[in-house]
Write a structure and sequence with these properties.
Blueprint: H1 2-20, H2 22-38, H3 40-83, H4 87-92, H5 100-107, H6 111-127, H7 130-139, H8 145-161, H9 165-177, H10 185-198, H11 202-215, H12 222-236
């Protein structure tokens, strides 16, 4: 027991000496310098890799920012055509200005390239090319909760046109539940209810209408939801 009692103070003394003694610190620095000298190529190799990694990260961030700025500028005319309902020009460009498809090809990894997917998806939906619409809308993602919900609903519209009612209902429900709110969720739930009816899923259709009635009782869609729910319940009895 006496031996163990004397060991602790000795260790503490050594630790204390290392922290406060200039001689001990100089000795440690000397050992570090010796290690670096012996392993110079490996040491500076690691430093070089770290410098390249940090430089590459910030270089990429700068490049991505410049690319996004350029993509936004290039997409201006395409958006103008879209808003004027000149959808083919918006999609394919006019020979002098890029269209949404060009923006996606050239700037696909930028925010503007991502947004071009949304515009392309809506354009194809309006043109009646529903499978293309679904593909581009599926490639779009947004941190804006309302816009993302809108994208889900638009994909649902395309599936409705293709008579894939189950997929449409699933997307409408997803839109309604995504950042659920009294302004848009009731509309998406009404679409979901109608899609479920077309898919012959009466129980889920009733559930969608019932959710409007109970959760969004003051919404404009509530009276229609009550009527549709009553009709389904009457036909099921």
């Amino acid at each position: 027991m006496a031996v163990k009692a004397t060991e602790k103070p000795e260790n503490k003394h050594e630790s204390h000496e290392l922290l406060e003694s200039p001689e001990a610190l100089a000795d440690q620095l000397s050992k570090t310098e010796e290690f670096v000298s012996k392993n110079k190529s490996a040491f500076f190799g690691i430093i070089g890799i770290l410098v390249l990694a940090v430089g590459g990260f910030f270089g990429y961030k700068y490049y991505a920012s410049k690319q996004d700025t350029q993509a936004q500028a290039d997409m201006f005319q395409a958006i103008f055509y879209f808003e004027a309902d000149s959808l083919q020009l918006g999609l394919n460009g006019d020979g002098n200005n890029l269209g949404f498809l060009d923006i996606i090809d050239e700037y696909g990894s930028t925010d503007a390239g991502n947004l071009a997917n949304f515009y392309a998806g809506v354009s194809y939906l309006k043109l009646g090319e529903f499978e293309k619409s679904i593909a581009y809308l599926e490639s779009f993602s947004s941190s804006d909760l309302l816009v993302q919900a809108r994208a889900y609903s638009l994909r649902g519209d395309a599936f409705m046109e293709l008579k894939d009612y189950a997929s449409a209902a699933e997307l409408y429900t997803k839109a309604a539940d995504y950042n659920a709110n009294k302004f848009f969720s009731p509309t998406y739930l009404m679409k979901a209810g109608i899609a479920y009816e077309n898919a012959s899923d009466t129980a889920k259709a009733i559930a969608a209408y019932d959710k409007i009635i109970k959760k969004y009782w003051d919404a404009a869609e509530t009276s229609k939801a009550k009527k549709y729910k009553a009709r389904l319940e009457a036909s099921a009895s």
